Task: inverse folding
C-alpha cells in the first residue's frame, strides 16, 4: 500500500490526461463524418479497445481528417 501512495502524485495527472484524451477523441470521432483512413466504427473500436494513449494517438495521427 505504501508503494501505491508513493506513485500517486505521478499517477493522478497521468490518468487525468489519459481520460481527457480519450473523451476528446470520442467527441471528435462522433462529431465528424470523414476520416483519412477507415470509418467511424473502426476508429471507435480502436479507441475503446486501446483506451490507453495508443488508441487516441493512432486516431489523431492516422484517422483524423484535416479540416
Result:
Amino acid at each position: 500500500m505504501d508503494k501505491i501512495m508513493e506513485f500517486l502524485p505521478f499517477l493522478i495527472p497521468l490518468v487525468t490526461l489519459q481520460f481527457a484524451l480519450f473523451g476528446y477523441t470520442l467527441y471528435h470521432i462522433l462529431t465528424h463524418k470523414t476520416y483519412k483512413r477507415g470509418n467511424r466504427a473502426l476508429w471507435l473500436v480502436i479507441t475503446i479497445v486501446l483506451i490507453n494513449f495508443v488508441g487516441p494517438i493512432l486516431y489523431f495521427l492516422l484517422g483524423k481528417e484535416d479540416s
About this structure: The longest helix spans residues 2-31. Residues 20-67 form one domain. Helices lie at 2-31, 40-49, 54-63.
